[in-house]
Amino acid sequence: MQETLGELIYAPWIYVLIALSVLLDVFLPFLPSGVIVIAAATAAAGTTAASTAAGAAAITAPAAGAPLPEICTLVLCAAVASVLGDLAVYRLARHGSARFTRAVARSRRLSGAQKRLGRALARGGGPLVVLARFAPGGRSVMSLAAGAAQRRTREFLPWSALAGLAWAVYSAGIGYVGGQWLGATWLGAAVPVLALFGAGALAACLVRRGPASRARAS
Question: Taking every pair of C-alpha atoms in the chain, what is the biggest distance, in angstroms?
Fold first, then answer.
């Protein structure tokens, strides 16, 4: 099973699948883009761990024990696709401002996010964009709110890029650690997925409580 999973990370089509899933999940938040990134990293790490355990065989095949290029490619692919997806929603919301303004006004969640994002970006508090990237649906809400609020690209893009990179590094990192620890198995992927969901739940809690706490403090 490890060999079968390990071959995935070396197949070019896996990066296309990852890029498409990350790009599209800003429109379809139910897509398991994070799970796919974790599975790919777990496969690479699990194959490395198996090769290392083989002893002398690993010495004669150093390439099999060094998946760093594949992991870096995985992170870069996921991060770039994340930024492109954010920009697509941001542009759609910004150029269709009247329609999106009405949609935002009908949604308490979107209107609240728009106000929080506007205040955060105006105060240099773009970390809210990074934090929301980990929350379920937070990426979609923030990109839509930024465009509908007519925020300038130079205010939103750097934080979107940082958010995409942080999310990609975290997802690939926990997948790699899980694969090294438990091998390229279902358990090796399930533990990192739980860690990703845990980070998402924590991020969602902080996004909701952060602005309210600051408002009370002021």
Answer: 66
